[in-house]
Amino acid sequence: MTPRIPFTISVFGLFLAIGLLFSQAQAAPDLEGAKKVVQKIADTGISEVIGADVSYDEKIERFRKLFDTWFDMPAVSRFVLGRFWRTAPEEEQKRFIEQFRELNIYTWAQRFNEYNGQKLVVTTATADGDGGAFVESQIEREAAKPMVVLWRLRLRGSEWKVVDLSIEGVSMAITFRSEYAAKLSEPGASVASLNALIAAQSRQLSSQTRR
């Protein structure tokens, strides 16, 4: 004889099952949304920055806005500094976020003049935990195979933000983290001295790009 399950238990089990299904649905990242964000970044960068008929200073300002809108620079900065972030004064933490952003902006600005109609095509997206995604894209090039760019994004509230780029398998965040860890391990080094070095690098890149 099959044992009879009390009504209260069966109802509780039903609601528990519904709750689990709902939580799983909520946890599943919106991969299509992540792909759309990457495509929007690429399209905006080409139409409003790289390919726009505006001055160099205006391009930099537009690129800065693009960074502020779609990249989680505070999170990237914390990862890049690693253990050195925790011991840095708050003022130097804020300065690092600003200087690191500017360095990235002027580094990419060097490539503005190299643009010759190349297109970025978003190909696939896979989940990265509950609130993250990896979006793969390819930059089409003449007389060469496409360059693979992997975007790592995290959900911040309801919005996707970029936290890393890997170009042909090389992570930008990990590369910077390794480089800065080596510099900060030198005798007498500090986040303040690293900030000064990054600021000098940005000024040099800005000067070179303007030529």
UniProtKB/TrEMBL annotation:
The keyword Glycosyltransferase does not apply. It comes from the Bacteria. The keyword tRNA processing does not apply. Residues 1-27 form the signal peptide. Keywords: Signal. Pfam families: MlaC. This is Toluene tolerance protein. It comes from Haematospirillum jordaniae.
